[in-house]
TrEMBL record:
Transmembrane segments: 7-25, 31-50, 255-275, 287-304, 333-354, 360-377, 389-409, 415-442, 449-469, 481-500, 507-524
Compartment(s) of residence: Cell membrane
Annotated keywords: Cell membrane, Membrane, Transmembrane, Transmembrane helix
Chief site of localization: membrane
Lineage: Bacteria, Pseudomonadati, Bacteroidota, Flavobacteriia, Flavobacteriales
Residue ranges of every copy of the DUF4131 domain listed in the record: 34-190
Organism: Winogradskyella pacifica
Residues in ComEC/Rec2-related protein domain copies: 233-498
The protein's name: Competence protein ComEC
Length: 676
C-alpha cells in the first residue's frame, strides 16, 4: 500500500528547509534533537492508529513534513563540530602559543608565499581534541610538501581567519566555515615536527595514488601545463593549474570541464559499461556488473577528492546504473532528487557550495529545457544533427546556471556555445585516452608516442581555449546581480517551461507577472544604490579614497594605471553598488563630504596653520609626527589609518588613541572606513 502521496521531492524540499533554518537561525541542538525525536515518535504512533485511512489524513502529511524539517536541522547541527565539548574552541587555550598535534586532510592551492592545507586537530595542549584548521606553511629555499594523513606537531598561535576588509569582497572566512574551519596557523618548517607519514585513511591512500600517478607521468615526459590539465580532468585536482590558463577557461565559458562533474562521470560510466559488457553473459551478470560499476565510480570519486559536484554526479549515476540493470525505468528528476536527498542528509553544508548548486541547476536545465529547444528544429542528416544536439545541451545548461552564475561571478561568456561545441565532443576522447595513459604509466608501459600525442591534444585544447578567451568584447564583465533577481529569474524559467507544456492563460499570466517582477526588482536595486558615500579602502602599501555620487565614483589614489585597472576592491564595489562610471584622480590633502571635513596627513606631516578644524584625520604613507600634539592641536572626532602605513606606526598610533580616548579606525584590522 502506498503511504499517502508523499514524494521524495516534497521530503527533499522539507530537508532543505530544515538545513536553511539551522544555518541562519542558531537554536539549541538538544532542543531541536528532542523535538525531532518526539515528532518521529508521534508520526509512527499516528500511522499505527490510522494506517487504513492514511490517504485522507492531512494531519499525517503535515506531521511528516515537520519531521523532515527537524531531520534537516538535526543533520546540519550534527555536522557542527563546535557544539561538541572536545572541539579545541571549547578547551582552555593560551593567549599566544598552543601545543597542537594535527593531521593533514587536504592540500589546497598554494599562494605566492605559503603552501596551504586543511588539517584535523588531534590534540590541543596535550588533551584529545577535534576540529579543523587552515595551515599556512611558508615556502623555504628547500620546499617541503606534506601529504594527506601526515601527522605533525607544532607550538604556535591560532589566528582567526581574516574577515573581508573592503565592501562586497569575497568572504573567505564564511567559505571555510562551511568546512568547519574557524582558525589558521602560520608556520615554517623550523617549528614543525613530523610524527608520522603513514597512511591511515582512504583519503590518504587516494592522495598517495595521485602522487604516484603524477610522478609516473612526469617520468614519462609530460610537461607542467599538460600535467595540470590532466590532474583537473582525470583526478579532480585543480591546485596546480597556471592562473592564466585557468582564467582562459573561465573567460571562454568552459571552466566546467575542469571540475569533475556529471559530464565526466557520465562519460566514464559509458566507457565502463562498454568494457564490462561481457559480464552480462554470466549467470548473475546483471547483479555483478552494476556492483563493479558502482564500486569503480565511488573509487573514482574518492580519488577526485569527493567534491560536491563529483559526489552529486556519482550518487546520481549510481542510482541510474542500478535502475538500468534492474530493468526499472529511471525518471531523471527522481534520480536527481534522490541523489540530492542522500547527499544533503549526510553532508548538509553541500547545499551552500557553489559547485553543488551549479551542477544540479545545469542538469535540471538540460533535462527540462533541452528537449524544448531541440524540437524547434530537427535536422535530417546525422552530421548536422549531432552538433545541433550538443549546441542545444550547452544552451540548456547555460539557461540553468546563468542566473546563479551572474550572482556569484558577475560575468557572462558570450562565446560559450562556440567553445563548448568544439570541446564537449572531444571530451570523451580526452577522458578515455587519458585513463588509458594513466593505466599504462602505472604499469611502466607508456610509449613515447602516446605521450607526444596526448600532450599535443591537451596543448591544442589549451590553445583553442586561449584563442576563444582573447575575444574580450564577447565577455560581459561586472554585471550587478542580486539574490532577489536570481529567484525571480528561476521563477520566469519555470513558468515559461509550463507555458510551453500547457499553453493556457494561467501560466502565461504568471510568467508575465514574473517578468514584470524582474523589472521591478531591477528598479528597486537601482533605488537602493542611489545613496552617496565616501570610502577609505584598505589597500596594502597604497591609498585609495572613493567619493561616490549616485552612479558615479571618483577614486583618489597613488596606484599606477595597470594596478588600478585590475584592483578587485574597486571592481567589487562597482558591481555591488551598480556603478556606471569610475573616474581616476590624484590624492588630495582635504576631502569634504556633506558636513564632514577629512584632513589627509601624508609622509610630509603637514597639519599646522590650518584655517579650519577637520572632523576626521586620515594618516597615510607613514607620516613622522607626534600624534598627541596633532590631537591636542586639531581635536578631531576620529583618527583613520589606511594600509599604506608601517605596522610599527599603526601600533603606536593605536596606543596613543586609546590613551587619549579617541576612536581609531585601522583599515587593515577593521576594514574600509565608510561615511554614508
Amino acid at each position: 500500500m502506498k503511504l499517502l502521496n508523499f514524494t521524495i521531492i516534497k521530503l527533499t524540499i522539507c530537508l532543505v528547509i530544515g538545513i536553511l533554518l539551522a544555518h541562519f537561525i542558531r537554536l539549541d541542538f538538544y532542543v531541536v534533537l528532542y523535538i525531532t525525536i518526539g515528532l518521529v515518535f508521534c508520526l509512527g504512533v499516528y500511522w499505527l492508529l490510522i494506517k487504513s485511512k492514511i490517504n485522507r489524513s492531512a494531519f499525517f502529511g503535515i506531521l511528516a513534513y515537520l519531521c523532515m524539517v527537524g531531520v534537516g536541522m538535526t543533520s546540519y547541527n550534527l555536522q557542527d563540530e563546535t557544539l561538541r565539548p572536545q572541539h579545541y574552541i571549547n578547551q582552555n587555550s593560551s593567549d599566544h602559543y598552543n601545543a597542537i598535534i594535527f593531521t593533514i586532510e587536504e592540500r589546497l592551492k598554494p599562494d605566492t608565499y605559503n603552501d596551504k592545507y586543511i588539517a584535523s586537530v588531534l590534540t590541543f595542549n596535550n588533551k584529545d581534541a577535534i576540529g579543523h584548521v587552515l595551515v599556512n606553511i611558508r615556502r623555504d629555499s628547500v620546499p617541503v610538501q606534506f601529504n594527506v594523513d601526515d601527522v605533525l606537531y607544532t607550538k604556535t598561535e591560532l589566528k582567526t581567519i581574516q574577515q573581508p576588509l573592503n565592501p562586497y569582497q569575497f568572504d573567505y572566512s564564511k567559505y571555510l566555515e562551511l568546512d568547519q574551519v574557524y582558525h589558521q596557523m602560520y608556520l615554517n618548517t623550523d617549528n614543525i615536527l613530523q610524527l608520522s607519514d603513514s597512511k591511515s585513511t582512504i583519503y590518504g591512500y587516494a592522495d598517495a595514488l595521485r602522487t604516484k600517478i603524477n610522478l609516473k607521468l612526469i617520468e614519462a615526459g609530460f610537461k607542467k601545463d599538460a600535467l595540470s590539465i590532466m590532474n583537473a580532468l582525470l583526478l579532480g585536482q585543480r591546485q596546480t593549474i597556471d592562473k592564466a590558463i585557468y582564467n582562459n577557461y573561465v573567460d571562454s565559458g568552459t571552466i566546467h570541464i575542469l571540475a569533475v562533474s556529471g559530464l565526466h562521470v557520465g562519460i566514464i560510466l559509458w566507457i565502463l559499461n562498454f568494457l564490462f559488457r561481457p559480464l552480462l553473459y554470466l549467470k548473475y551478470g546483471h547483479f555483478i556488473r552494476p556492483f563493479i560499476l558502482v564500486c569503480i565510480l565511488w573509487s573514482f570519486a574518492v580519488i577526485a577528492g569527493l567534491s560536491p559536484s563529483v559526489t552529486r554526479a556519482v550518487t546520481m549515476f549510481s542510482v541510474i546504473s542500478i535502475a538500468m540493470h534492474l530493468k526499472r525505468r529511471t525518471n531523471i528528476y527522481n534520480t536527481l532528487v534522490i541523489s540530492a536527498f542522500i547527499i544533503l542528509l549526510f553532508k548538509p553544508t553541500f547545499l551552500f557550495a557553489v559547485g553543488f548548486q551549479m551542477s544540479y541547476l545545469a542538469v535540471l536545465g538540460i533535462v527540462s529545457v533541452q528537449p524544448i529547444i531541440y524540437r524547434l528544429w530537427k535536422p535530417k542528416y546525422w552530421i548536422i544533427d549531432k552538433p545541433w544536439q550538443i549546441f542545444t545541451v550547452t544552451l540548456a545548461a547555460q539557461v540553468g546556471v546563468v542566473p546563479i552564475s551572474l550572482f556569484y561571478f558577475h560575468q557572462f561568456p558570450g562565446l560559450f556555445f562556440i567553445s563548448n561545441l568544439v570541446v564537449i565532443p572531444f571530451l570523451g576522447l580526452i577522458l578515455g585516452f587519458g585513463l588509458l595513459v594513466i593505466a599504462l604509466a602505472l604499469l611502466n608501459a607508456l610509449p613515447d608516442f602516446f605521450v607526444i600525442v596526448y600532450s599535443y591534444i591537451i596543448d591544442s585544447l589549451n590553445g583553442f581555449i586561449a584563442w576563444v578567451a582573447q575575444f574580450e568584447d564577447f565577455l560581459f564583465r561586472d554585471i550587478p546581480f542580486t539574490l532577489l533577481q536570481v529567484i525571480v529569474c528561476y521563477i520566469i524559467i519555470v513558468t515559461l517551461i509550463q507555458v510551453y507544456k500547457f499553453r493556457n492563460f494561467k501560466w502565461i499570466a504568471i510568467s508575465l507577472i514574473a517578468i514584470i517582477g524582474l523589472q521591478g526588482v531591477y528598479f528597486y536595486n537601482r533605488y537602493q544604490t542611489q545613496h552617496n558615500a565616501l570610502v577609505v579602502f584598505n589597500k596594502s602599501r597604497y591609498s585609495m579614497i572613493g567619493l561616490k555620487e549616485g552612479k558615479k565614483m571618483t577614486v583618489y589614489h597613488n596606484l599606477d594605471s595597470a594596478k588600478l585597472k585590475s584592483e578587485y576592491a574597486l571592481t567589487n564595489y562597482k558591481v555591488g553598488e551598480s556603478l556606471d562610471i569610475i573616474i581616476s584622480d590624484s590624492l588630495q590633502s582635504v576631502y569634504q563630504y556633506k558636513d564632514k571635513i577629512i584632513l589627509a596627513i601624508d609622509s610630509l606631516s603637514i597639519y599646522k596653520g590650518l584655517s579650519f578644524k577637520p572632523n576626521y584625520i586620515l594618516l597615510r604613507n607613514s607620516p613622522r609626527l607626534n600624534l598627541n600634539r596633532v590631537i591636542d592641536s586639531l581635536k578631531p572626532q576620529l583618527i583613520i589609518a589606511d594600509a599604506s602605513n608601517y605596522k610599527s606606526y599603526l601600533k603606536r598610533w593605536k596606543a596613543t588613541c586609546e590613551h587619549e580616548k579617541i576612536p581609531f579606525h585601522q583599515t587593515n584590522e577593521k576594514g574600509a572606513f565608510i561615511i554614508k
